[in-house]
Specification:
This protein is of the alpha+beta class. The protein folds into 2 domains: 57 residues, Ribosomal Protein S8, Chain: A, domain 1, CATH 3.30.1370.30; 58 residues, Dna Ligase, domain 1 (2-Layer Sandwich), CATH 3.30.1490.10. It has 4 helices and 8 strands. The strands form 2 sheets. Strands 4, 5, 6, 7 and 8 form a 5-stranded antiparallel beta sheet that branches. The longest helix has 15 residues.
Length: 126
């Protein structure tokens, strides 16, 4: 039984990158697809598509993920606190993304700052 599907996805992506494979299969859900869209938009992964059975997603990797992990607990972040959490979870300025869920959907911290909205942290990728 899986208790944290987001953590499972980040673990699969990181382990697949570390062994040098170019594709992996992860469980399918709307939340995971939205997280993958954010990662794809920031060029961390390539294309992804549902498998024939519909239960999984096949992800093409680009070899650009050094680390990714879920953030627990899911901290609530005000727009003024985004920089504090960037310093806490990302290795340097302008390297990596924080993935957050907001009232406007799932996005990275830079898009949330542009829109002037806060939200809850889901994970980080760099």
């Amino acid at each position: 039984m899986k208790h944290d599907p987001i953590a499972d996805v980040f673990s699969i992506l990181k382990n697949t990158e570390n062994i040098g494979k170019k594709t992996c299969e992860i469980p399918n859900s709307r939340l995971i697809r939205n997280i993958l869209k954010v990662m794809q938009k920031r060029d961390y992964i390539g294309d992804f598509k549902e498998t024939d059975s519909g239960k999984g997603i096949e992800v093409n990797l680009r070899g650009k993920i050094n680390d990714c992990n879920v953030i627990k607990p899911n901290f609530s972040v005000k727009k003024s606190d985004i920089i504090k959490f960037e310093k806490r979870y990302l290795p340097a300025n302008n390297i990596g993304i924080l993935i957050m869920t907001t009232s406007s959907g799932i996005m990275d911290q830079q898009e949330a700052a542009k829109k002037g909205t806060g939200g809850r942290l889901l994970g980080y990728v760099y």
